[in-house]
Amino acid sequence: MCGIVGMVSADEFYAREAVQRLKRLEYRGYDSFGYYYDGKLFKKTGHIIVPETKDRTKMIITHTRWATHGGVTDANAHPHRAGKVTIVHNGIIENYEELREGLKEKGRVFSSETDSEVAAHYFDEKLKTKPMKEACVDFIKDIKGEFAILVMIDREDTLYALRRDSPMVLGVGENINILASDIYAFSDVTSKAIFFENDEFAAVKSGSYTFYDRHGKEIKKKIQQFKWEQEESTREEYEHFMLKEIMEEPKAVRRLILSLETEQKENFGKFVKLMKESRKVTFVASGTSYHASLLGVYYLHKCGVEAQTIIASEFEHFVGVDRNTLVVAISQSGETMDVIEALKYAKKNRAKIASIVNVPYSTVQRMSEISLNIVAGQEICVAATKSFVNQVTLMLSIAREFGFRINTSNIPGKIEKIFRQKDKIEKMAKELNRHNDIYVLGRGLSYPVAREIALKIKEISYMHAEGMMGGELKHGTIALIEKGTPVIGLISNKDYDMLSNIKEVEARGAHVIKITNEMKGDFMVDTSNDGKFGILATIVGQLLTYYVAKERGLPIDKPRNLAKSVTVK
Ligand code: AGP
């Protein structure tokens, strides 16, 4: 979490341009923001405001924060300054207390509660006796934890960048170099990027750069020429990115299907082959991506494939992997720290790594032997919507190779049919708005859907929602059902067990909202296929969530306490 952008150019540019670039990364955190150039420091809580200033500069660093150490205050916002050093940092310096005590003994005075400020004092102190290159080597040695850090030194024309476990990439332009948390910050300026690996650092000037390893030895880095399916980053006629991104779902699915038949065809074949050759297939993912993996496991299981999925943050506690295991990571951002940690564990145990990501060249993709892109285009709203739909479509395409019966080509048309029920969904949202708790019940293929809908309702509508297995209800949760409690029931293909669970809550006065394909329900999805039901029912849930949140006047695209890319443990 946290987004950083630093620019160094031979020609002057507007300082506000850097802040505009930072705004593209606001999904990484939006507790506070700040920037520093030519002796001017600005930092403030709240969403990024691009300054009116006509100031021009040749070097700037900027930061958008997702708070970890220290509350959301102006003082804790980045950049942090100490002496002649100014820094921005993404990550967590785990041994910051110890380092801070040592620096305090040297007379250093701290003005924030953050772990990051330590880095500013650390470099300023080191620079008294050493050149910056050596200070960077020491920093990498002394710091425990994660960092993507930019360091600016007063009156110097070099920007220093260091990385461990938090993303950092250099965009190489004509007479301009841009350091950022991801390529989206500069994808309009250059398609040439150099990705930092762990414990590397670089000294970057306007027309040149030098990379070093952890020992300070110069290293040659490969420039990657990237191509990134980028939707326009404007909301167009939509009030929120969330709605825009839901409406893009049919287009995103079409693009994925085409790409699997063309540019990703060969890779797709290799991916499936690797799965077929592996004795054990274990998925790993977090949040919405985990729900997509659960659906994937369901589809594969239906065609006799032994597969499992484990939540990334608990991966190493609940699963054993070895050289016969293929670990498949699913991640929209490709930067989720829990997923990366799980992959490191898998690598240590000599498992093979594959991945399914949306953001190309992301860390997860670069850690994988083979990787498929879901080509959903940039997703700006914190809530995953179109990326989920494309993850599931890709899982269906994979399952088809194992014998799952599915025609993916008509998915876009069926999604459009869901959109036609928008008014009805909006009306239902008005009714749900009066409640603070909701239960979403599913069984089998609709169980992951229940969890996904509940997650959306929680993060965007701020309503307590429980997504659960219909069969588990009677083991406790049913005690919470009373007259009028809203319950969403997901009933696919006349699932009579699910119907019984619905009857059980109805008998206790619940108000049941049915999403179904074959029976009379509140919302109908047009499919008799188990695979498509998962996608279509989720979209009803996405729209319901959106309209409840809208009714409540909530910050839909940037819900409180969250960030799109979760790069802390
Ligand atoms: C979903 O709406 C979330 N905001 C969140 O659960 C997300 O899916 C999770 O953090 C995983 O992210 P990833 O797909 O980028 O790894």
CA-based gyration radius: 25 Å
CATH topology of the largest domain, which one? Glutamine Phosphoribosylpyrophosphate, subunit 1, domain 1
- Strand numbers in spatial order across the main sheet: 3-2-4-1-10-9-11-15
Strand count, sense and barrel status of the largest sheet are: 8 strands, antiparallel
Q: State the separation between the terminal residues, measured CA to CA.
A: 10 Å
Going by CATH, the homologous superfamily of the largest domain would be: Aminohydrolase, N-terminal nucleophile (Ntn) domain
Bulk shape: globular
Helical content band? 25-40%
Number of domains: 3
Mean pLDDT: 95
What count of helical segments does DSSP give? 17
- Helix-strand makeup class: alpha/beta
Strand tally, please?
Answer: 25
CATH-derived architecture of the largest domain: 4-Layer Sandwich
Name the bound molecules.
2-deoxy-2-amino glucitol-6-phosphate
